[in-house]
Structures are given as C-alpha cells and as structure tokens.
Amino acid sequence: MAGVHWASSMLGLVLLLAESYQILAGSVTTNNPNPVVNEFSDVLLSCVITYNPNGELRVEWKKLNAGTDLVYFENELRGVLVDRAELRGSSIYIYNVTRKDTAVYRCEVVHKEKGYLGDISVNLTVQVKPITPKCAVPKSVPVGKTAVLTCNEHEGYPPSTYTWYRNGDILPGDPKSSPKFLNSSYKIDSNTGTLHFSVLSKLDIGEYHCVAENNAGRAKCEPQHMDVYDINIAAIIGGVLVVTLVLTIITIVIRLAYKRGYFAKKHPPKGYQASSKADDVDYVRSNPVDNEGDFRHKSSFVI
C-alpha cells in the first residue's frame, strides 16, 4: 500500500509540473540578432515569442548603452523612440535611425501569473557615411626631401579607410607593384590617411586627392597640386658670397672711419669753463674804486 501511495504522489507531481510547463512552454527568439543599417533608414528590432496562449504576457524593451533605458514599458514607447517608432507584435520598428541609436536592445517577456518567460538581445549598428575629408598637400617641395600628405574625417562609422590618387590614378599600397609608381618612395597608411614620401623626385609632381570610404559610402577631397623643384646650389653659394662681401666692405668702412676720427667724441679746450652768467647782463664790480682800465659808462653819467 505504501508503494502504491508513493507512486500515486509522484504521478500527481509529474502531472502538475507538466501542466506548469504547458503554461510556460515557449521561447523568445529574434529573426536578426545583429541588424546593420545606414543612418536615416528604417529598421526592425525583431522579438519573436512562441508560448502556450493560456495567460497574458508582458513585453518590455530596454536599450543597453552607457546605462539602461526603457524604450517600451507598460504598453507604451518611451524615451527617444516615442515619436519615431512603433510596436509591431512584440518587435519594435524604428523610423529614421541615427548614429545615436547604435546600441544593444533587449526584449524581455514575462508571464503575468507564472513569471519570467525569456529574453533576447538585438545588437543594432547604424552606419554613417563619411563626410568630405580634409586633405593637406604641400604646394612645393625640393627634390630629395621628405613630404607628408594627410587626409582625415571623423564623422563616418565604421571608421573610414583612405585611398590616395595622383592625376586620377590610384596609388597602390606598394609602389613597386606598378610601373607608374616604380620609382616613388612613398608609404600609405590606409587607416590614418597619411601618405609619406621619404625621398621626392620629379616623378612625384602631380594632382593629389584622397577618398574616405566605409560600408555606408565614400567621399573625396578636391585635387591639390604638389610641385617638386631642383635646388640651385650655384645660386645659393653666390648669394652667400655676395652677403659675405657686403659685410666685409661695411666692416672696413667702419674701421677707417674710426681711424680718421669720424666717430671720435669732441671735448672742449682744457681750462675752458662755460660762464654761468647770461651774455646780455652787465654786472658792476663790487669795488667802489674803479680802475681806469675797468671804467665803464653808466647810463646815468652826464658830461
């Protein structure tokens, strides 16, 4: 009897678990776990629920970025998706996506009576077309010198790769691989957009432009001319000699001038003292007896 009772209890437990499993039987999946779209297009964040229809399910969507933001909760869209998204079944359809929408979104499904059913994550990537890159090309460089050409833009996503052109012809990564660039000494960094010449020659003269490109599109800068000129050694030496000659002549002239006293400071005669009296004032001696030699007429003297 005890064995029969134990078997009956176990059968009841199995039936109860089976009933609970039937209620919660189901799954949460997605048709596209990693959607990739271009900016300003539309996208569907797929959340597919299969379940036993007994009971009501609650669907929530969360945006997992720097933090966690609710985007669908209590049957309402929330946050940045309020005016440009709609719920389609348990999935979210977003209109006019922007680069700020790039994130992981999680769909969570809960049975209101029996509890948690499951969840699925959707990793959305919004690609951004590159803008016109900023290119810097030196206008004129001497033969045999180095030169660095730069090209970059910071709006595209994924980050752009860069390609350089001369006179409309693409510069290969290895100049030795093309007869047109066989004698060039450049290196290209396609990730930073840098074109570096270690030794310039006349063959490097031309119109240069750069193209920035990613999966969303491409953009280029306007062509710029780079000239490569010869260094005139004779003219440089002649200029140095002329300057040296002029400085030598100036030095000789200054020394001769010093010797002849043109720059000597003039001193007054020895024993001379400038009078402190005014020239137009006539002073009378303090001695009442005037000598004959010192006799002066006064304005009050009467003959």
First and last CA, distance = 184 Å
Shape: elongated
The radius of gyration over CA amounts to 49 Å
* Major beta-sheet overview: 6 strands, mixed
- Would you list the SSEs in sequence order as H and E? HEEEEEEEEEEEEEEEEEEEEEH
Question: How is this structure best summarized?
Answer:
The protein is of the alpha+beta class and 303 residues long.
Descriptive overview:
It is built from 2 helices and 21 strands. With 303 residues, the protein is an alpha+beta fold. The strands form 5 sheets. The chain has a 6-stranded mixed sheet, with no helix packed on it. Strands 13, 15, 16, 19, 20 and 21 form a 6-stranded mixed sheet that branches. A 4-stranded antiparallel sheet has the order 12-14-18-17, with no helix packed on it. Strand 6 and strand 7 (76-77) form a beta hairpin. The protein is elongated, with a radius of gyration of 49 Å.
Could you name the key traits of this structure?
single chain, 303 residues, alpha+beta, 6-stranded mixed β-sheet, 2 helices, 21 strands, 17% helix, disordered C terminus
Secondary-structure map:
Blueprint: H1 2-24, E1 26-29, E2 36-38, E3 43-45, E4 48-51, E5 57-64, E6 68-73, E7 76-77, E8 85-88, E9 91-94, E10 103-111, E11 115-127, E12 134-136, E13 140-142, E14 147-152, E15 161-166, E16 169-170, E17 186-189, E18 194-197, E19 206-214, E20 217-220, E21 224-229, H2 233-259
Parallel strand pairs: 2-11, 13-21
Antiparallel strand pairs: 1-4, 3-9, 5-6, 5-10, 6-7, 8-9, 10-11, 12-14, 14-18, 15-16, 15-19, 17-18, 19-20, 19-21
